Amino acid sequence: MLENLDFEGRKKRCEFRLIGLNTKKNDIIKSINIMQKFLIEKRNKLQEVDKEICKTEEEIFTLEAQEFALNLKNNKVDIKKLNANKVAQTIIEQKDILLKEENEVSPDRENTELLLDDKSIDNMTINVDKSEEDL
To answer: What pLDDT shows up at residue 14?
Structure first.
């Protein structure tokens, strides 16, 4: 008789433990689902921000290209005589000079910040060779 009571007592304790473990398991599953939803929302927001950044960078590039074209037009540059390689080299040289000057003044700023701040195309002068080789 005592054995039956002891067995029934152990059985009840095991059932309570199983119920407790199942409850913990369900709580863990709920928290994982909540975290997954949160991470999915966060990822979607970051993707939207990335799209906006790309769109903004494209708009900036387009505006700079338009500004560059206006500078060419205002300086009455004959595009047929324009050497694209020399123009590109001039832009690169001017950016390098500005980066070097900026690093001397404030070496702790990142180069990406310098490029965003760079408005050198506004003041850029373009040398057009009128030699036959460049045509």
So the answer is: 92
